[in-house]
Design goal:
alpha+beta, disordered N terminus, 3 helices, five-stranded antiparallel β-sheet, globular, 27% strand, 145 residues
Length: 145
């Protein structure tokens, strides 16, 4: 049997600058992890990817596509969302001054990403920025059967 976790692989796809991008991004991450029987937590990867894509759609303007990059590594996975806005996301790598309003449905995405990923951040790109998170591989003895 081929040892999948030893072979790095990556997917890159342009997504529409609309809410329709969220389910497509979730499906791509699910497919990428399943196709290689990758050991990162797929549910968490899907959730955090959806948050990144939704933030990119909501907080950037224009028709420029958003790009999703999924990298599978022996140590886990990294997901990046590229958007055309060069401004860094607020409070991604540090706690906010105030907690999110409990009566609002939004405002928790970056908090989730900080809490559930092993690391996260952002970097400038030639056309805007990339916001990313990493998830570790789950040891075999902790995976559901």
């Amino acid at each position: 049997m081929y040892e999948h976790s030893k072979a790095p692989a990556s997917w890159r796809i342009a997504l529409p600058h609309s809410a329709a991008a969220v389910p497509v991004a979730r499906a791509l991450v699910r497919t990428a992890l399943a196709e290689l029987e990758h050991t990162a937590d797929g549910d968490t990867a899907e959730l955090l990817t959806a948050e990144l894509v939704a933030n990119a759609v909501e907080h950037t303007s224009g028709e420029t596509p958003i790009e999703l990059v999924v990298e599978l590594l022996p140590t886990g996975c990294q997901v990046e969302v590229h958007d055309p806005d060069p401004d860094p996301p607020a409070d991604l790598t540090r706690p906010g001054v105030e907690p999110p309003d409990p009566w609002r449905e939004d405002g928790r995405g970056l908090l989730l990403i900080r809490a559930l990923s092993s690391s996260c951040g952002h970097r400038p790109t030639d056309s805007g920025k990339a916001v990313w998170f990493r998830l570790p591989a789950v040891p075999a003895q902790r995976r559901p059967h």
